[in-house]
Each structure stands twice: as structure tokens, then as C-alpha cells.
Amino acid sequence: MKVAVAGCCHGALDKMYETLELLQRRHNVRPDLLLCCGDFQAVRNEADLRCMAVPAKYRHMQTFYRYYSGEKKAPVLTVFIGGNHEASNHLQELPYGGWVAPNIYYLGYAGVVRFRGVRIGGISGIFKSHDYRKGHFECPPYNQQTIRSAYHVRNIEVFKLKQLKRSIDIFMSHDWPRSIYHYGNKKQLLKMKSFFRQEVESNTLGSPAASELLQHLKPTYWFSAHLHVKFAAFMQHETKSKEELPKATKFLALDKCLPHRDFLQIIDVEHDPNASDSLEYDAEWIAVLKATNSLVNVTQSTWNMPEKNGLHAKWDYSVTEEAIKEVLEELNHDLKIPCNFTLTAACYDPNKPQKNMEPVHTINPQTTEFCAQFGLTDINDRIQQAKEEGSGRGECEEEEEEEMDSTGSAEEPSEYNTDNSGLSSFNPDEIMLDEEGGDEDLSTCSVDPSPDHPPEFSTSFSDIRIMPDSMAVSSDDAMDSNNEELEKFGGSKQVEEKSSTERSLKRIGGDENGNSGVKKIKRRNQAIYAAEDEDK
């Protein structure tokens, strides 16, 4: 089947789907599935805009609300993960995944689903070591810290995914697996993004948690976005025994949505012609959720996942074939995900803007139904209970509790290096590509529901981790043997927009008179966020 893969969408759904329709008209190619690798921006109203960790100038309503309201419907089944520019309050309603609009499915904090026999997994957010070992404690209204920590990857999601034994066909992450750039054309990458050089050379660009998953899952395809540049890599995995068949992963990072042409790619994926055309639950993943349910944490306390170190009575939460069979029997072997999308918030009305709308903590009926069906903890319900009980843990407060030591206790030190002494005081989640100066405070910025221009972001990382031996840095010369495979994969059918109605969107820089504008690469001032920067 044909799968379309998109980079950062930034809420420009109309343009994304128009591109697919153009592809069909011009080349008679119609994708069966669309995957989006984060920064989807499922913004329903002005309150959702307030939950996006971006300066006011980048807070645009865009076009998702039309699909949420039912005014429009996605022409192709769309599955996406979260990034670091999201309406976190909306996605938080669906921690285990669910429909954000008809025919548009969110994978949750982490998730695995099936479509036509193809197994698709993903993890939302980006990696930050100081939040990695906390629970999902955040809820709206967010403060200066939680509006960002809400989209930071947690160790429990990585732990769940590492319990999987069956092979994964496609996996998505927003940020890149650390070190993957050593398995592609690194010289060309640095030519396009020269400001990555220091982090590439020090092997600190990307997510160590994602690279850990790459090592464990060994998917056929891995797609990412986040850094707003197209990049292909081919990684041959090491075998642990002579009996193990060699596996390789084709990695592809996509650019952001329009005006850049490399934001979308079409690939052919082998599928089961006898499998259902509906999106389906994955039985092993459901069994893993049930097995790890006792590990759910909704507090700010930092803790390590169970491991074989003498401190835990149980450390292996992978599931047996019997447990998977039980899931199948519970569902009467009908794995189809119910189309139970429900409106949980008012939809934006361009004729009646409500700029003072405030976000509220909502428990989504989809999550309630899912948890009841499989005996799982509703994370948002647990957070709400903690709030009502006034326990202080997992409670939504305007002022956070005193920050805990991210290195953990002496008995359970963090598995990640958390020495940030070399970091600047600027927010590490952002490197902005901007044409103009000026800094705005995130806490006081106004909401601009203008649908005109998508935001432009790019990001680098700073947390250092010693990588597994199999992720050791390879020289550019060592990539010669993979060049043919990379060119074949990276050169798959691209979608280019050249219709008269969209030529104006191709502008990279410049004003209305056509004067060219020079992009400046700069780190945003600390004042955009808070003096107590999250990596301090």
C-alpha cells in the first residue's frame, strides 16, 4: 500500500490534504494512509492556542478546527504523534490515543496500532533528561514550566515500548534518534544546517531515548521531523546470535509543511491484502498496557523503571502469547478501533472570536471507555482526584512545587547525564528561524487566531548520553556502502506544489513586494519563557 509521510504539519491541514489531492490529479497516486511526525497542532479554539509553548506571533488558529467541527473531513486516514508545538491540553485528553477528529487518530503518549496488517508505533514529544523520570502530572491551566514539560517524553512510555517482542514495521518519533546522522550523508546535512555541527560532532543532537528504542525495536522504517530538514539514513543492526536474522532500519526525517517541498513523501509498504481496511488495536500493545498499568505515575517524583539490578522484584513486563490471546478473546477477535470521536470543547468561530477563553482540564469519554474496557488507569481521572484531594502531588497549581533533583536518589541514579553546566540560559527547546527581532513573554502574550502563515521552528538538544556500541560513530567514508540504499530511499516520490493557487506559499523570505529576506538563526531570548529556565 502507499503511505504518505509528513513532517511538522503546524496545523496547515488544508494545505497538506490539498497537496495529496494534487498528487492524485497529476500522477494518479492516492495514498492509503497519511502519517504525521508531530507538531500537528490540533487546535480547536483560542484556549488551545494558550496551551502551545510558542511566542504569540506564532500562535495561529490554522485549519484543524474545520475538521474538528465537522465542516471538513480528512480525505485519507491520518495517524499522528505529538511534538513540542501542540495544544497540549487537547492531546492530554487522550493519553492512550484516540480520535481528535473524524478520520484523524492520535497515537497517544506512546502507542501501537495496525492498518492493513502493517504495525505502526510511535512516541510523542521530545526528550529532556530532567523530566524524563517524572510522571505525567501536568494539567491545564499550565504555568511557565508545565506548558513545556507536558510534551517531554517520560521513561514509562519508553519502558512500555521496550516490552514489545513482535516486529514493528513503521515507527515515528518527533525528535531524531541520537547518532542517526552518522548513518546518512552527514556532510550534506551540515551543509544545509551548519549550526548543527557542534552537537553532531559531540554526538549530542537528538534523543537518547529514541535511539534506545531504535536499538530495541529495529523497525523497517523510522520517520521523524522536528529539525525542519529532509535527511535519510540507513542503519544495519547488529545481530545478537547466529540464529537471528539481520535487520536494517530505513530512517527518514521530513521538512515542515509548506512552503517547503520536502515535507511529504510517498512510500510503498508491503501489507496483508486480507487484513482489515480499518484502523485496529494491536493486541500485544494492549497486553503491555495492562501489564504495566501498576507503574502509572501522576506525580512529579522522579523514579527509574524496574530493571534487573537487585532493587526490583519484577523487571520484565513483556507479555506472553497467552496474555495476547486473552486480549483477543476480550475483543472477540474484533480489533477495530471504534469510531467514537466526541466533541469535548467549543470549536473556534471566526465570526465570534473569544480571545479570553481559558483552558480547562477535561476527561475525554474516549479515554474513559478505553480504560474501562481494558482495566487501565485513566491518567486524567487520577490527576483530577489528586487535585480534589489536595494531595499536592500531581496537583495543578499556578506555582510548581520545589523542583526535585533530576539525578534521583543515590540508590537509583539517573541513567542519563544531567550535567547542564555548559548550557546557556536560553530555552533549549527552540532555535528560531526568524526575520525580525523582538521578544515576547509567553505568559502575557495575546492570542492571534490568524490562519495566514504557519510558524517556523527548528530545535537542537543538549542532554548527553553514552550510546550503545552499535550506535558508535561511523566516518563519512564508512557510509559509501549504504549510499545506493540511501539514494533509493531518500529519492522516493516527493510531493511538490506548483499550482497557481499555491505558488505564493513557496516564498522562503521576502515581503509582499518580493524583496528577499535573509533568515537569521538565533536562540530566542530567555524572556520569552521564564527566568527559571527548565534546564537549570
From TrEMBL:
CDD domains: MPP_Dbr1_N. Its main location: nucleus. Residues 386-395, 485-510 have a biased composition (Basic and acidic residues). Residues 235-380 form the Lariat debranching enzyme C-terminal domain. Residues 396-405, 431-442 have a biased composition (Acidic residues). Coiled coil: none annotated. GO terms for biological process: mRNA splicing, via spliceosome. Its cofactor is Mn(2+); Fe(2+); Zn(2+). One of its GO terms (molecular function) is metal ion binding. Residues 415-427 have a biased composition (Polar residues). One of its GO terms (cellular component) is nucleus. It is found in: Nucleus. Belongs to the lariat debranching enzyme family. PANTHER family: LARIAT DEBRANCHING ENZYME (PTHR12849:SF0), RNA LARIAT DEBRANCHING ENZYME (PTHR12849). This is DBR1 enzyme. The lineage of its organism: Eukaryota, Metazoa, Chordata, Craniata, Vertebrata.
